[in-house]
Design a protein that fits this description.
Layout: H1 5-12, H2 22-44, E1 47-50, E2 56-60, H3 62-66
Length: 75
C-alpha cells in the first residue's frame, strides 16, 4: 500500500519536524505529475498488431505505458 503524504513524512522526518501545510503541498505536487504521466501514457501508448507467433492480435504494449513518464521528471 502506498502511504499518504503525511505518513510518508512521518516516516522520513518525524511528525513534529515539518509545517502542517507540507502534506498538502506534496499532494498537489504529486497530482501535477500523475496528471502529466497519464497524459503521456495516453499520448504514447503503442498498439502491437501481432503476437509472438506473428498472428494478428492487437493489444496494448504495457511497457509503452510504463515507460511513458520518466521518474527523472519529478524533482
Amino acid at each position: 500500500m502506498i502511504p499518504t503524504a503525511e505518513e510518508f513524512l512521518d516516516g522520513i522526518v518525524g511528525k513534529d519536524c515539518y509545517p502542517t501545510d507540507t502534506p498538502y503541498a506534496m499532494i498537489e505536487f504529486a497530482k501535477l505529475h500523475v496528471e502529466a504521466a497519464l497524459r503521456n501514457a495516453a499520448d504514447n501508448v503503442e498498439i502491437k498488431q501481432y503476437d509472438e507467433h506473428m498472428q494478428y492480435s492487437p493489444h496494448v504494449d504495457a511497457q509503452s505505458i510504463l515507460n511513458s513518464y520518466s521518474l527523472e521528471k519529478i524533482k
